[in-house]
Specification:
144 residues, mainly alpha, elongated
Length: 144
């Protein structure tokens, strides 16, 4: 078992509590139940954000309810990351195409190999963006 922070000479950061609301004291309460595995996940998230457990749960619930954040699966995060990377790749490919067009317009010589290389990058990027977009569409659920 790991030593406590006090035992090894380190001080723990004080837990940040939720700020008082302008609307007054919160007097409405309800019970939230978790199994052991779920509670471990929620506790770790609260600790990561340096918040008390109840404060973290309350803030997370309000953020989702007010659509300040929209919960997404880990797979969706991966797909979004893929789209972001693909956008950058498409931007670079667009720059390459502009260079090819500039050379062609200036009566320069562009080899078949150069054109095929650029088109290969375009096809790959478009395929990756298409796949990521389709994955997001499959996971998207309509809001009622």
């Amino acid at each position: 078992m790991a030593e406590s922070a006090a035992a090894n000479g380190q001080r723990r950061r004080p837990v940040r509590r939720r700020e008082r609301e302008a609307g007054g004291r919160r007097s409405n309460r309800f019970l939230v139940s978790y199994n052991d595995a779920e509670l471990t996940i929620v506790r770790e998230a609260a600790e990561r954000d340096n918040q008390a457990l109840a404060s973290w749960v309350g803030d997370a619930a309000l953020d989702v309810a007010t659509e300040k954040v929209v919960p997404v699966s880990a797979d969706t995060k991966d797909v979004l990351q893929e789209l972001i990377q693909s956008r950058g790749q498409l931007r670079r490919i667009g720059n390459n195409l502009n260079q090819v067009a500039h050379i062609l317009n200036a009566d320069g010589d562009v080899t078949d190999a150069q054109i095929k290389a650029v088109l290969k990058y375009v096809q790959t990027a478009v395929r990756r963006v298409d796949e990521a977009t389709l994955q997001l569409m499959r996971e998207r659920r309509p809001r009622l």
